[in-house]
TrEMBL record:
<dbReference type="GO" id="GO:0006351">
    <property type="term" value="P:DNA-templated transcription"/>
</dbReference>
<dbReference type="InterPro" id="IPR036390">
    <property type="entry name" value="WH_DNA-bd_sf"/>
</dbReference>
<comment type="similarity">
    <text>Belongs to the LysR transcriptional regulatory family.</text>
</comment>
<dbReference type="GO" id="GO:0003700">
    <property type="term" value="F:DNA-binding transcription factor activity"/>
</dbReference>
<keyword id="KW-0238">DNA-binding</keyword>
<keyword id="KW-0804">Transcription</keyword>
<dbReference type="GO" id="GO:0043565">
    <property type="term" value="F:sequence-specific DNA binding"/>
</dbReference>
<feature type="domain" description="HTH lysR-type">
    <location>
        <begin position="8"/>
        <end position="65"/>
    </location>
</feature>
<dbReference type="InterPro" id="IPR036388">
    <property type="entry name" value="WH-like_DNA-bd_sf"/>
</dbReference>
<dbReference type="Pfam" id="PF00126">
    <property type="entry name" value="HTH_1"/>
</dbReference>
<dbReference type="InterPro" id="IPR005119">
    <property type="entry name" value="LysR_subst-bd"/>
</dbReference>
<protein>
    <submittedName>
        <fullName>LysR family transcriptional regulator</fullName>
    </submittedName>
</protein>
<dbReference type="InterPro" id="IPR058163">
    <property type="entry name" value="LysR-type_TF_proteobact-type"/>
</dbReference>
<dbReference type="Pfam" id="PF03466">
    <property type="entry name" value="LysR_substrate"/>
</dbReference>
<keyword id="KW-0805">Transcription regulation</keyword>
<dbReference type="InterPro" id="IPR000847">
    <property type="entry name" value="LysR_HTH_N"/>
</dbReference>
Amino acid sequence: MPFKNETHSWDDLRLFLAVASEGGLANAVSRSGVSAPTLSRRISHLENTFSMILFDRHPGGVTLTPQGRELLEKVQQMDLHNQAIQSWRTRQDPRPLVRVTVGYWTSIYLTRNLDRLFTSAQSPRIELLSGSQFLNLSRREADIAIRNKQPDQKGLKRRRIGPVTFAIFGSPTYCASHPQSYSEERYAACDWVIPSQSGATGGSSSWLRRKIGETARLVCDTPQAVLEAAAAGGGLCILPCFIGVNESRLVQVSDPLASLPHEQWLVTHENSSALPHVRHTANAIATLMKQQQVGIDTAN
């Protein structure tokens, strides 16, 4: 006999498992939470769908037919998989994840201000993807990007979040013992800490190399190492003002460098920008980055 052209549901199979395991409708009521009439109707529906008798009915209850026993073995396996899925699901964090790709210094600034991003227990989780190579939003490699140039790709939404300025910083002790730090003599008279070519994060490194040549006292392969070395008194370095001004171990010894500012843009894919968790995180980041510019203006 051919099967009915109808899809069976897991709910019906779950009720079949309850009746088969308990040996009757009455005993299956408490296990399934479904009334006896409903159980009877759903079992009959399942038998009709499969075009086969799964239970033999008798006054003392029900017993499985040979086909019913075969189905029970398969449904028991399905139930084990279902339990494994439920166990896995309970271990997952219910909060949505937002992937944010940013440059190195912006990632440092965001991690130093997490309390402004995670404003409640329900705030989305964030995966911060930092580096000089930005991931592709069009291929959904990230949900939000902070970029130093306005993107021109189709399908992206962009928001200007303000300028990024750069200045020269050094430790108070180093600058006190090297007064040239505060004048244009600094480029020839002071020690410098710079990133390597591979560790450079933008045009500021190239600009400084043109000023001092290959005379740097220390070359570091990560931006964080540059900051740490300068804070330890190793020499002067160039930093984004939103990093240097907020670093208590450093002092600013120059005005913002006129040739280095650039605009920052917050970018999202037009399809994901409407998602509440992406929109919430994008707004929080944009507000935070605008606030840092106000703080820099106040400090200067």
